[in-house]
Design a protein that fits this description.
Blueprint lengths: L1 H23 L18 E3 L4 E3 L2 E2 L9 E2 L4 E3 L4 E3 L2 E2 L9 E4 L2 E3 L4 E3 L2 E2 L9 E2 L4 E3 L4 E3 L2 E2 L9 E2 L4 E3 L4 E3 L2 E2 L2
Antiparallel strand pairs: 1-2, 2-3, 4-5, 5-6, 6-7, 8-9, 9-10, 10-11, 12-13, 13-14, 14-15, 16-17, 17-18, 18-19
């Protein structure tokens, strides 16, 4: 009986320790609640319709609907992020790059939102939410003011640096 009580207490302790980690997955580095989780696809192609998270996607063509990754999907003419149409995105040239980033021939997107001024030709995803093009460095789709793309390097666990500064989850710390 003592062993069972001991195992129960250990299990309870592990559950309480793990709970904050599970809760943190629903928030991005800026503390904003994520509406779409990148770790599992929530699209479903039924017999007649396409759904995202239990909601019907109006106008989606089920016969050629393609579930990509990071919350993105497309059919012949339309690109979707978390079940919502991305206006102006070209399904023909659309590619998911990772960490929430994607691009088509004309635009770069983060979590389905166009990144204004980002260069599709030189855009490169680094890691931990960092990306860069010829002129700018980005974190979670937002430009990092003053960061130098030529010397920008990602470290581990959200750290990055350029020749002049150190960054942690996209914020300048030195």
């Amino acid at each position: 009986m003592r062993q069972i009580r001991y195992i129960f207490l250990i299990s309870l302790l592990v559950a309480f320790i793990a709970m904050p980690c599970v809760a943190q997955r629903d928030y991005d580095a800026h503390g904003n609640r994520r509406e779409c989780r990148h770790h599992r696809p929530q699209y479903y192609v039924g017999n007649n319709d396409v759904y995202f998270d239990g909601r019907k996607i109006e106008g989606a063509s089920k016969s050629i609907f393609s579930i990509l990754r990071d919350g993105y999907a497309k059919d012949t003419w339309t690109v979707y992020y978390c079940g919502v149409k991305i206006d102006g995105a070209s399904a023909n040239s659309f590619k998911v790059l990772g960490y929430g980033y994607a691009k088509d021939t004309w635009n770069v997107y983060y979590d389905g939102i166009k990144i204004s001024g980002a260069s599709t030709d030189s855009f490169k995803v680094l890691r931990d939410g960092y990306a860069k093009d010829t002129w700018n460095v980005y974190f979670d789709g937002e430009k990092i003011d003053g960061a130098s793309p030529d010397s920008f390097k990602c470290g581990r666990d959200g750290y990055a640096r350029d020749n002049w500064n150190t960054y942690y989850w996209g914020k300048k710390i030195r």
